[in-house]
What we know:
Layout: E1 2-10, E2 13-19, E3 24-29, H1 35-45, E4 61-69, H2 74-82, E5 92-100, E6 104-108, E7 111-112, H3 115-125, E8 126-129, H4 140-151, H5 154-179, H6 184-201, H7 207-218, H8 221-236, H9 242-259, H10 263-290, H11 295-315, H12 319-337, H13 339-385, E9 392-403, E10 406-415, E11 423-424, H14 431-446, E12 453-457, H15 465-478, E13 483-487, H16 491-494, E14 499-508, E15 511-518, H17 522-533, H18 539-557
Amino acid sequence: MLRTLRVRNLALAENISVDFEPGLNIITGETGAGKSILLGALALILGERADKSLIRTGEEQCSAEALFELANADEINRALEELGLPPCEEGQLLLRRTVKVAGGQNWVNDALVTVQALRRIGEELVDMHGPHDHQSLFRPEAQREILDAFARTEKVCEAYREAYDTWRVLLERSAVLEADEKDAAQQVDLLTHRVKEIEVAALTAGEEDAVRQEHAVVGNAHRILELGSQVTSALTGEEASAFQAFVSTHHALEELSRLLPAAVAWKREVADLATRTQDLGQTIQADLTRLEADPARLDWLDQRLATYQRILRKYGPTLETVVQTLCVAQSRLNDLRTREEQLAEISGRLSEAFSAVKKRGRALSERRRASASELAEAIAGELEFLGFPGSSFTIGLREEEPGPSGMDQIEFGFAPNVGESMRPLRAIASSGEISRVMLAIKAVLAAQDRIPVLVFDEIDANLGGGMGHAVGRELAGVAVRHQVLCITHLPQVAVHGTAHFAVVKEVSEGRTLSRVAPLRSPEERVEEIARMLGGTDSRATLAHAKDLLLRARSRSVD
């Protein structure tokens, strides 16, 4: 469950902290008071797009933080492991997000993460439904997802998709080979030349740098030998060299060491310097002896560098790109030369692959058909409870050509009233009707939904007060298995909450801000319900509010 939500400097929320409870959490308040700020902050934490315009005027950043307490953290821990993050400790998960004028940061249990990581984790935690989400029910894909969720088709869908992907890859490969028939000879000539040119060049990693270094040496060989001779002469020459100076110094120190004990160490150091100078001179001389001003070698180096420049300019700009170009050309050349053999081989595999698609597609269809009537009956039962007595709900499946999601065209049908003909769900004009259909579907799926927190933002929009009690009871029923957060304007819905929070707008030090007050006492709830009914200045309204709360409480006990 969502234990705590904290919001700072987001729109009208300067500093809000809300501790939610298990069950049905009701959020109410006047229009514009800032109710949706709470859900906006939660959406932000769950990876929704950040709108910098929501940062409170005069501030550099806004932040939102959510603490979840999970009775079973297995799903979340698997998601955390996929993201390379440590598991929850004692079922606690802390998500934070900061949005700045320039940039922002995200954390999961104090580890910095990407927005994509927040979104991945959020998928396992919260299912949010806004006032317009019911429109998704018009999409065939959404209807298919609902049926698949109820029928638990995950493994069957995965098996079908694997077969479908294999078949599609073969189809695309066959299409490429079929298209190769045109201008095949010309392509073979072009690719053969390209492969031969790159292979003959025989470029290797590191060779170009080595050639450039050797080119610099061979091209300046005369000057190098001249300067090297001067160096060796200065180090170890017969006259006036460093070595001769150290030898003379050593002779002087021989006599000095007999007169001055400290000179013994000096003599050793000079002897060491003389030896090292002689070794250095010999090393330099050996290296210079191997150096030749060979015109033929210089010419080869020139040609090798020219080869690198030509190949990299034509197929580069890097050696990795050249290698990739060679691999692609070799593969295409092999395709063109073995086109007929490959087409024959793929033709046989295509038949087998399509048979596998059809077989697994039929298995998926059977699973869907077996569950469609059961789901339709359950939804119809919930709709009757929500004010559609005698209504009908159907889920039709019609076979179609294999697609990424199966071989079924799925369509929900609804007849709201007795005697009316069944119509596709997309033909329903009333937003109040479709809102209740959405709620009925969520109520049916709630028992199977593994997501712990469900959020409804004015899902009761466009419904009258007469239906409020039914909607409230339905939400309370869903809240038996899930924590539910619900923003509502209907007092008949609000009275069914196990926890109630009122959002109020006030002015402090010349600034407007929103505040969230938990309504813990019966008197506070009565006043808020009375306000929603039309005002708290009437005894009759207060009495009505109290009666609504008592009736809702008695129904929950029943």
